[in-house]
Amino acid sequence: MHVTSVRGPAVLIGAALTLTCACAGPSGADSRNTPRRSASSSVIPVVASTNVYGDIVQQVGGGKVKVVSIISDPAQDPHSYEASTQNRLALSKAKVVVENGGGYDDFVGEMLHSAKNSSPAVIDAVKVSGKAPKAGAELNEHVWYDAPVMGKLADRIADALAKTAPADAAVFRRNAEAFKDKLTVLESKERQVKAAHAGTAVAVTEPVPLYMTEAMGLRNKTPADFSEAVEEGEDVSAQTLQRTLALFTDKQVKALIYNKQTSGPPTEKVKAAAEENGIPVVPVTETLPRGEDYIGWMTANVGAIKSALDR
């Protein structure tokens, strides 16, 4: 401080008293004399459409983010979710928003459209993935089951957080790299399954895990109209159901990967057929189970599929 190098004792004492009063911040003091917190010490409010993305944001942002995940209940079907007033309030305060996109969580876009005086940085995971629908098929929007895409997403999250808090940019990018290092271990486990079981036929109740099964070299034999109807909550025709059940009665597949988060009569019949014919059933979910993080969750999914195929 300049005052300490050129002023006498009386001035030094006066300066010290002034500093003491300003730092103490007594009630009723002028707020202009209260030191402001630095940008790096304040947390960044972030909203994620599901706790899957909420967890990844937390791993990248660490203690410098406060994350609200709109869907965090494993029993909740994301496809039928209706946003609450509390969700809208959180979104109105967010500096960064992470959504899946691809029609999966349209409620986020609807809330953003109606929010006033709110312009957060919005990260769309499907757009980050760069994926496009295959010819004659719909886009599989469940991109969080694709490990490389989640690595790209971590980088994008780090960039968005860095723009909001430039002083902490190095921290965010370091955390993103640490997360991607964990993803490489997960991808290695997928390749191990591929080496042992490439070309093995499996069935699914919904397209949810297909990016993971493709990375493992597995072949999905489920009739497309069955899994698409289940995902959209539409009726499954009797003919389609019979073709699907035949996968198990005729032992055409080695495992059924079952989305336990959205079930109904057709999927229950398929699950029963698999069990009756001794075909392993591997349950998966769309949102993060309580007490899990993304890496642990996906690693467990790979391990469960591997165990089923190893039988």
TrEMBL record:
It is found in: Cell envelope. SUPFAM superfamilies: Helical backbone' metal receptor. Residues 1-24 form the signal peptide. The keyword Transport applies. The keyword Signal applies. Keywords: Metal-binding, Signal, Transport. This is Zinc ABC transporter substrate-binding protein. It comes from Streptomyces nigrescens.
